Amino acid sequence: MCTALVVGNMIGSGVFLLPASLAPFGGISLLGWLITAGGAICLALVFARLSAILPREGGPYAYIHAGFGDFAGFWIAWGYWIALWAGNAALAVAATSYMQVFFPVLGHNDLLAGVFAISLIWIVTWINSRGARSSGVVAVVTTLLKLLPLAAVTFIGFFHLNTDNLVFNPHQKPLLSSLSATMALTLWAFLGLESASVPAGDVDRPEKTIPRATVIGTLLATVLYILSTISLMGLMPSDVLAASQAPFADAARLMWGDWGYWLVGFGAVVSCFGALNGWSLMQAHVPAAAAKDGLFPRRFNQRNAAGVPIFGLLLSSALVTILMAMKYAGGDSGVKIFEFIILLATATTLLPYAFCSMALIAIMLMRGKAFSPRDYVAPGFFAGIGFLYSLWALYGSGAEIVMWGMLLLLLGLPIYVWQLKERHAAD
């Protein structure tokens, strides 16, 4: 279930569109995939080591709190929580877009599309309210259902390859700038690799289960990403692939006809739904872990009979609903607001990665006698690579987004001060 949570949260809506975005770069994109995958695997190893040393609920928040103290823990939990529920809005909208394959009216009627998207949010909220096992079962089922059509198109596509389509640099673009562009595109496909560490309190033998799930899940997603890119680039000429609005579906139609197109359309909807289910689980557990430590209002750790942090789950879903109402009711301006918030949320998700890379070394240093100098060699290497990877990713987000991200984080300061007042009053 933990591995399914990692794979399901990483493989959301983006993978269905990435081959088209990468097509103009040809074989250079494979180098981009490999470099980005190297950084992601280093981060996966960081989270694996952290979860083995400190198997606590809250994932990135718990590690940063342990490594850098109350303020850093609050700061990251605040930004990460906002990024989680805002990202869920994007997944619900993407699922609604893919449903147009079956119900074209959703593409022309904003009211119906809005009602459908918001209904999805509250369906996964209900699933998650029934407990971590309920969410885990959905994660396993949806991950299998989404991987089957993706894997089928990818592996059967190798039998239909046209080697003339496989060109290293089809448009003779400068190598370094092309490599940088492909790394920026592939980067977003790895967000979510930390997912297994968040519900640690509900995981059996978390010190062993979470590290394995994190590394295996990241490797599985990496293999599928790279093989699917090669397969689709071999199936279609780069200009045709670049113009495709649904590359996997178009590839399936080439090989199997219309039924293949419908099959992959179904896989895309299931993919978005599965990712939405997994991220909804996380939007409840991150603020609950902070509330348990007295850094968020106590109500965020209020749990129902199934042990689910119900207040945080319901509040997060209510905020997603408001965000989607802005998107569907605001016309063009609403769409722009929505896109900006999602971009901001994605950039904010990267901050915990940089902090966690250094938190691993900080926690090991705090437990100095438990580790010999040799014990620092491997963690020091992959923590250093993970830190540089995260910094590069933040730089690639652009100065404006980083500035707004900082303002968003600073907005949490009054809440932190208020919580300090509450804690002192209780003492």
Attribute tags:
single chain; 427 residues; mainly alpha; Amino acid/polyamine transporter I; 75% helix
Please give a structural write-up.
It is found in: Cell membrane. It is a multi-pass membrane protein. InterPro entries: AA/rel_permease1 (IPR002293), APC_superfamily (IPR050367). Keywords: Cell membrane, Membrane, Transmembrane, Transmembrane helix. One of its GO terms (molecular function) is transmembrane transporter activity. The chain is an all-alpha fold and about 425 residues long. The chain has one domain: Amino acid/polyamine transporter I (Up-down Bundle). Helices cover about 75% and strands about 0% of the residues. It contains 17 helices and no strands. It has helices at about 1-10, 20, 30-55, 60-70, 70-100, 110-130, 130-155, 175-185, 205-235, 240-245, 245-255, 260-290, 310-330, 330-365, 375-395, 400-410, 415-425. Helix 6 packs across helix 7 (about 130-155). The chain starts with a helix and ends with a helix.
Counted up, domains total 1
Estimate the global geometry from the Cα principal axes.
globular
Based on CA atoms alone, the radius of gyration comes out at 21 Å
The CATH homology group name: Amino acid/polyamine transporter I
Just give the CATH class. Mainly Alpha
Label the structural class.
Answer: mainly alpha
Number of helices: 17
CATH topology descriptor = Amino acid/polyamine transporter I
**How many β-strands, per DSSP?**
0
Query: Any idea what the CATH architecture is?
Result: Up-down Bundle
Low-confidence runs of at least 5 consecutive residues? none
User: In percent, how helical is the residue content?
Assistant: over 70%
> Sheet with the most strands?
none
Encode the helix/strand succession as letters.
Answer: HHHHHHHHHHHHHHHHH
Question: Would you tell me the overall average pLDDT?
Answer: 85
β content, as a range? under 5%
Distance between the termini: 41 Å
GO molecular function, one term: transmembrane transporter activity
Subcellular location: Cell membrane
Family: Belongs to the amino acid-polyamine-organocation (APC) superfamily. Basic amino acid/polyamine antiporter (APA) (TC 2.A.3.2) family.
Keywords: Cell membrane, Membrane, Transmembrane, Transmembrane helix
